[in-house]
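User: Here's a chain of 306 residues. Predict its fold as tokens.
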Amino acid sequence: MGGALLGAVSQGILWGIMVLGVFITYKLLDIADLTVDGSFALGGSVCAVLVVAGVDPLIAIVAAMLAGMVAGAVTGFLHTVLEIPAILAGILTQIALWSINLRIMGKSNTPLLQSDTIFSRMTEMTGLSANVASIVVGLIVAVAIIAALYWFFGTEIGSALRATGNNEDMIRALGVSTAKTKMIALMLANALVGLSGGLICQSQKYADIGMGTGAIVIGLAAIVIGEVLGRLTPGKLVGFKSRLVSAVAGSVVYFLIRAVVLQMGMNANDMKLLSAVIVALALCVPVVWEKYKLRAHYTKGGEADA
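Assistant: Prediction complete.
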């Protein structure tokens, strides 16, 4: 059980980097970017092919990140230049990436076998177990990305990007190109998704054509779980930095829930159903709680007036 939970934590952190990408499009731009399922597998495919070819695993990770960025640029072009609705643009890119990923790998699955990875290097250097090494590497990358995102979104262009999601008409009236900010956001988000795909590929020692299936659902579930955790935390973590941390924490909690449920004997084929239930519960619980507090407030106020 302990090993399964450690594995869940390591997976949660590595997938949490993907969740940060989903956070950018979903929470800042108010777009559910379905490119994610394809760009995650794209990052894994590119990384696997390069690692098997003998390329340094760090360079392979950078290549996975750049590949994800290109996928985001394609979606951005379809949406901002060709004016295709964002959700449809993401679907089109995702569909195209399925064939592209097959072309890249030349088959549906690419095992890394005995190839060198950043995780095997960490294990050799420190003597840590595979799961603990994954957690350490994941934490280092996640902290670095959160710090970089916090800095970037505090800059002028980062602030304009955040404002685009809040009030697109207002930011356009101020002379800011919303097409440019959307393009940057989609490229940045999918770069993180591709990076996560590359890390997962090296962690699990293979890339698979279907490894990104349901990634957007996992991302949304983790974000919502993170928000619930933020509300339940004393003092309520509502700052931007806290929201980024909560997104990764939500991913860890999501994978811990999955691990516990699987250990309890749940059929692995039912995991998609579980994911849908988790998302639905995470979305409805805050709404029900707010309605309960509002009703309690009015009831208390009515009794006071009486």
